[in-house]
Write a structure and sequence with these properties.
CATH topology of the largest domain: Rossmann fold
Strand order of the largest sheet: 3-2-1-4-5-7-6
Distance between the termini: 10 Å
Number of domains: 2
Shape: globular
Largest sheet: 7 strands, mixed
Order of helices and strands: EHEHEEHEHHEEEHHHEHEEEHHH
Radius of gyration: 22 Å
Strand content: 5-15%
Length: 392
């Protein structure tokens, strides 16, 4: 199936789409370093990005009209800084808000479906009306804001159209949900906001995929059966303190049916210690970065839990966010390779440039595994619907 990737960044969402069987007709990104990362990996032969037609362009100047009828799915993550909890919260007043152009892409291409992602901060009470506005514009993409019409007035017009229920133009069934990546097999507690839509004429019923992993299953494996510690060959004398709520888990009649959350230890256990082992230098992107220090509210990620959310930061990498909290309570920065594993990028995908730039790209990325789960579900529903897929 044919797709187009908007705001590709380092390629996490796009890779998930590729793993689900989508063929990218275009991969659009403005950032020079992010484009260089993808192109460098294409030269290295990294499988998931081979054949991607990279287009470095400002989406505000990009016309999608020649792609109308040729694309099955649009995917992308409009820049999240306007809505990030770590940013300035300007939202729809921020010139970096690219949702209007994602909506324009849907209007001009008329795909069968789309999947857009953003930070959880978009769901804050401050932005609740604007989120509804985005979703209604995606539902009725041909109903365009009039010249000099305020967005709130346009919202009212779209609301009236929705309640009238007699619109016969291009229309999408749109739903949204916040998903925690840890619940889908990603070793990181990363919550992202997803908006998905299917063209109404296809008659597709769809919901976001069911969660496959849980904290309860991890705690059972750690503190009831002990198989987690056995797998990592940790003796009892070296185990951390159990969590305060472990008694609730131990009283369960049987192990939860879900798979266990994956932890930092699960993700990086086979990598040499970059601070102490010279062999780490032979592994791409596995270089020790000095200067890590904890401060209030930013104490690093424990080894035996999913990592805290990796972040990019408004002015570079936030010091306390992207750190490993070691068993002796000391901290160090995650290497770029460790961070890539926490984002489920394949080991053959190499990041070039400075540590800060690499971490910025990773902090902005969608975990590949989470993207694959969602994209696979979309692909399966489109295939099962019996509609003819787009041809290029």
């Amino acid at each position: 199936m044919a797709s187009i990737e908007l705001f590709a960044g380092a390629g996490g969402l796009g890779m998930g789409m590729s793993k689900a069987g989508f063929h990218h007709v275009a991969v659009i990104e403005w950032d020079r370093d992010a484009c260089a990362t993808i192109r460098d990996n294409q030269k290295r032969g990294s499988g998931l990005v081979q054949g991607w037609p990279i287009v470095r362009a400002d989406i505000r100047d990009f016309s999608f009209c020649n792609l109308a009828g040729k694309i099955d799915v649009i995917s992308g993550g409009p820049p999240c800084q306007p809505f990030s909890l770590g940013g300035k919260h300007k939202g729809y007043l921020d010139s970096r808000d690219m949702f209007p152009h994602a909506i324009r892409a849907v209007r001009e291409i008329k795909p069968k479906a789309f999947i857009l992602e953003n930070v959880k901060g978009l769901t804050r009470a401050t932005f609740i009306n604007y989120v509804e506005y985005i979703k209604l514009q995606l539902s009725f993409p041909m109903v365009i804001k009039k010249p000099n019409e305020e967005w709130f007035d346009h919202l009212g017009r779209l609301e009236r159209l929705r309640t009238k229920g007699r619109y016969h133009g291009l229309q999408y069934n749109v739903i949204s949900r916040v998903l925690n990546a840890a619940n889908f097999g990603v070793p990181q507690r990363r919550e992202r906001f997803f908006i998905a839509g299917f063209r109404t004429d296809l008659g597709i019923e769809w919901n976001f995929p069911d969660e496959t992993h849980s904290r309860e299953a991890l705690l059972w494996d750690q503190w009831v059966s002990g198989i987690y510690w056995e797998r990592h060959q940790l003796p009892k004398k070296r185990l951390p303190e159990p969590p305060k709520d472990i008694s609730k888990i131990s009283r369960l009649p049987e192990r939860p049916s879900a798979a266990a959350w994956l932890t930092v230890r699960d993700a990086i256990h086979d990598l040499p210690d970059p601070e102490r082992e010279a062999s780490s230098r032979s592994i791409p992107n596995h270089i020790f970065q000095s200067g890590a220090r904890p401060y209030v509210g930013h104490t690093g990620s424990p080894l035996d839990e999913p990592a805290k959310t990796l972040k990019a930061g408004d002015h570079g990498v936030p010091g306390g966010e992207n750190m490993l909290l070691k068993p002796d309570d000391s901290v160090r920065y995650f290497t770029v390779r460790e961070s890539a594993r926490l984002q489920t990028f394949p080991d053959d995908y190499v990041f070039t440039g400075s540590w800060t730039e690499n971490m910025r790209q990773l902090g902005n990325a969608v975990p590949v595994r989470l993207a694959e789960v969602i994209a696979t579900s979309i692909q399966e529903h489109l295939s099962a619907s019996g509609t003819r897929v787009a041809s290029i």
